[in-house]
Specification:
The chain is mainly α and about 210 residues long. The protein has one domain. The chain is built from nine helices and no strands. α1 packs antiparallel against α2 and α3 runs antiparallel to α4. It is elongated, with a radius of gyration of 20 Å. The relative contact order is 0.10.
């Protein structure tokens, strides 16, 4: 990941929300301070979405998550309800991701197809390759990790809310971001692992096709 990307992620997902929460809670109250603190991350995510031209399964998933999250936040009415509704939404999203495994359309596979398409690969050919038995199982496990991340973070937020309450939102925000980055690292490692498997497979296939027939 580029250093600039790491900086902007820290700025818009942690530093600015933390600053807005700390400076705004006495003036605006907990609910509106938390709501306002989510704006930098929302705008930054939309910017990244448009910049990267992710108008595909990945893009649809990002937009759905943003729309659902923003709708829940706006309709909650209080800081406590908003944070608990985020817990319920996280559980729902985790179960939706999990359901794609049972429908034999693991979400991670389609994310990988989108990435390959952005690199100039045909969707149909890539999808056919990724659905081969030797690769498909890895995408299932990776989709499971996506689902576990959502369910784990929902459980973590519920625990922190029960233990510390809304007044410790800054600590909750920090803990959620740290856990999110840990999962992001694991998921990235998963995609790298699968990419290496596919690369080795394609390399062996090319060597076999290049060998002269006897």
């Amino acid at each position: 990941m580029k250093k600039s990307a790491v900086f902007y992620d820290l700025l818009f997902y942690l530093i600015l929300p933390y600053f807005i929460w700390n400076k705004g809670r006495d003036v605006l109250g907990d609910y509106y301070a938390i709501l306002l603190s989510s704006v930098p991350g929302f705008i930054y995510t939309i910017y990244r979405f448009v910049k990267d031209k992710q108008f595909n399964v990945t893009g649809i998933f990002i937009l759905f998550s943003l729309f659902a999250g923003t709708t829940v936040d706006l309709l909650s009415g209080s800081a406590g309800k908003m944070l608990w509704n985020q817990v319920y939404l996280g559980i729902a999203i985790g179960l939706i991701i999990l359901s794609t495994i049972f429908m034999k359309k693991p979400l991670a596979l389609y994310f990988a197809v989108d990435v390959a398409f952005m690199q100039g690969q045909a969707r149909s050919e890539t999808k056919e390759l990724y659905r081969k038995k030797e690769f498909y199982r890895y995408f299932v496990w990776l989709t499971g990790l996506f689902a576990f991340r959502s369910l784990f973070q929902a459980g973590l937020k519920a625990y922190l809310l029960t233990t510390y309450g809304v007044k410790k939102y800054d600590f909750i925000l920090f803990a959620m971001k740290i856990s999110g980055w840990i999962f992001a690292g694991l998921i990235t490692a998963g995609f790298v692992f699968i990419s290496l498997k596919i690369y080795n497979y394609m390399e062996k296939k090319e060597k076999a096709s290049a060998e002269p027939e006897v």
